[in-house]
Amino acid sequence: MIGKMTAITDPTTGQKKKFYFDYSYWSHDGFITDPSTGMFEKDSPDSNYASQTHVFNDLGNEVLDNAFDGYHTCLFAYGQTGSGKSYSIFGYDKNIGIIPMACAEIFRRIELGQEKDADVKYSVTISMLEIYNECVQDLFVKPKNRPKGGLKIRETKKDGIYVEELTSIPVQSYNDIADQIDYGTANRTIGATNMNANSSRAHTVTTITFKQTYYSGGTPTNQKQSNINLVDLAGSERQRTTGADADRLKEGSNINKSLSFLGKVISILAEKAAGRKSAQNTVVPYRESKLTRILQNALGGNSKTAMIAAVSPADVNYEESYSTLTYANQVKSIKNQAKVNENPQDKLIRELKEENERLKQMMENKQKMMKENKLEKEENKDILNKVRLMNVNEDPILTGQMCHAFKDGINNIGRSKKGKKPDIPVNGLGIVSEHNRASFDEKTGELILHPNEESSKRNKTYLNGKLLREDTPLKHGDMIIFGNNTLYVVLYPGMPVTQQMKDYEAAMNAVLKQQMESLRDDQHEKDMKDRLSQLKDGLDKQKHDAEKDLLRKQKEMEEARRKLEEELRKRDEDLKNKMKEAGDQKLSLEELQENLRKEKEDAERLRKLQGEKEKLFEEEKKRALLAFEEAQKQREKEEFDLRLREKLEQQLSAMIQMCNDANEMCRILGRTQYFYKPATEIQILPDGTKVPKVICRAYPDRTKEFHNVMNFDEFEDKIYMMKEKYDQYMYEVEEENNFSPELEVDENEGFIFGLSIRDDWHLIGNCYIFLYSLYAMLEIRKDHSPIIDIKGEQKGSLCYSIEPIVYDENGEQIDCVDSIQNMLGRDMTVEICIHYAQGIPDKWSTDVFTEYKWIDVDGKMFETEKVNYK
């Protein structure tokens, strides 16, 4: 990152692509922690590290300047999970983000404004909402008090687009806002735990409504209002860009409907801004998702909007980072028509009276909420002096928001039920009402965790990565995973809380590592890394030795050339001297010519000898260069294989967790016959390269061999659908206080659970038909291509024909076209005929059909008629 330029390099090809934005900030390294403030600062004057204060001075101040001028403003952060979106918006620890900085700056400016002009009155209110599963939730309302289905989005001429019944709290100071944000964040955590939401899948919208009312002689004359929307979007690795680079970056999955439609809206707006005729009559689909509906003004209406695109510098995240930068490049082309929001005098008086009534009600609600919040803070303060469990979340901002102290004696740990609350309530997927027990001796400080007596294997609890099977003493810093992914850490009073104790990813990986043993080869990975290290060292040594040897030989050649030139110079002088002597001695012309011929022959012989030496040197130099290039290619291949393996392992780790979640949800939903298993298969790329990929095998009946195969993105979609059904089920269960109601079978159940895409079909294998023959305009008649199954084994072959068809200007078919070059600028029809398949196993020979698509052509699938192979 240099100035406004951000460059990204493809680790596989080395190709660099540059993007230009209003600002480009680097915050990955080049900083130290100031011991006096705990804030990150540059580690040297030359460092290009951008601190939180630096970012706020550029972006936050501009947002507030527009707000004080009466414009609606919006700042949203976009990027993959872990890239720094929430850090930029909310901050972490002492390094506070844009929202808290903006809140403090608002009240600082209000104080200065009141000192300058007492006839201007200011009011500030705040609201917080979260969008998860296309459901809008009020974060200032406890989850148990929220309406089923979430809040509704409305639109009127007077108020524009707004969320009905969304709580707005009036605030008088920065501390008021900070308390409200903490309160909303705590409710976000509770909601995420109860409903099994994942932080990276939910969007958080914090809205600060800022009003300035101008008075003259005690009578209001004008009012400016600004809605400041600060948005923390979900992780964008769920959403890939579309457009010209669709061959590299796949269409976004439906895991997050809001992000998919946000990309669609931005794409259309960007095309309209670019003046493309095809987009001018296109309706922008704001209403297709809750997020785009709420942000309609910010995206293409009455608002001044800025976007923070957060990217990761890791090469394994290249595709996600490139997608984010491409996305941001589209956003910057959108032009909004913002206007100052003012009320005329005749409406103002009436509206102020109505607002006074609303503010009275809001103040009463605030007092009630603050009282509850105060009680919770007092309880939390008391908890810090006790042995306790503290939640650890994937999102660092949510870590530490929930603490549960152990009481003296037996503590029941588990899911809360209506009318029955355990001593330590822990909610999440795979957690039952009586999940574990913990015995605590207040005198000695001894704490022992007991496994579930009914089934420690089914009601899983992991302690420091290992399944809890027997009574185990706990100590400070122990990491406990209840159920599938609800993580807590044991803390003793007076002992430090290290960063390692807040590492969600490390704790989950410790559990997943055991489950991956059968699917990975640690020794192979170690050998590959050792081999890569040896190859790198050998390559460096080879390059150094080759350069040293070439330099030595080059010096020898230069020395030989110098000696030759010196000898030739001497011979030339000798020849001149002899000619002079010959003139003096009056030698015969024949003798003079003979001497001259001998001298020339000697000089030519020496030059020829030197030329041969230089030719040998150049050949040796080329051989050394080729050897070095081959070694370099081998090193790059090894590095690519290692990166591919690391990415495969990351996906495999995530797939194991998703399969665990799916199996647990099926158990709770009464679908115990369904079973999901992670696996890997060999994928054959169009160029014939074989690469491994992660898949899920979905079994409609765990006792039978038949199963459906889904790739990583497809299974993510199914998990999303299953969790919607699970959330709906758990809501009804908790309302009725009954954990085993009869769940009706949905007519789309096979699709929702990923058990079948089309009734009950089985993927026999993949077959690739290559079109190389079209380059030579050749026809292929009844050629065969192998059908390869998910294990890389051949399960038969497919017979096909390919014929290029070209018509002349009169519509007559041309029999022969010499070269594809002659087809430039002309239409060509390609006819592909699938004749039959052979060698297919008998058990899969009923209702066989072929499903096919053209690579890089909108992804549309076609299929042949079903036939019985027998």
Automatic annotation (TrEMBL):
Keywords from the UniProt entry: ATP-binding, Coiled coil, Motor protein, Nucleotide-binding
GO terms of molecular function: ATP binding; microtubule binding; microtubule motor activity
InterPro entries xref list: FHA_dom (IPR000253), Kinesin_motor_dom (IPR001752), Kinesin_motor_dom_sf (IPR036961), P-loop_NTPase (IPR027417), SMAD_FHA_dom_sf (IPR008984)
Protein name: Kinesin-like protein
Chain coiled-coil ranges: 345-386, 529-619
Organism: Euplotes harpa
PROSITE patterns with a match to the protein in the record: FHA_DOMAIN, KINESIN_MOTOR_2
Listed Gene3D superfamilies: 2.60.200.20, Kinesin motor domain (3.40.850.10)
GO biological process terms held by the UniProt record: microtubule-based movement
Binding site for ATP: 79-86
Domain FHA, chain residue ranges per copy: 411-468
Signal peptide, first to last residue: none
PANTHER family: STAR-RELATED LIPID TRANSFER PROTEIN 9
SMART domains named among the record's database cross-references: KISc
SUPFAM superfamilies membership: P-loop containing nucleoside triphosphate hydrolases (SSF52540), SMAD/FHA domain (SSF49879)
Pfam family, one: FHA
Kinesin motor domain residues: 1-334
Keyword Ubl conjugation: no
Family: Belongs to the TRAFAC class myosin-kinesin ATPase superfamily. Kinesin family.
Tree of life domain: Eukaryota
Statement: the UniProt record of this protein carries the keyword Coiled coil: yes
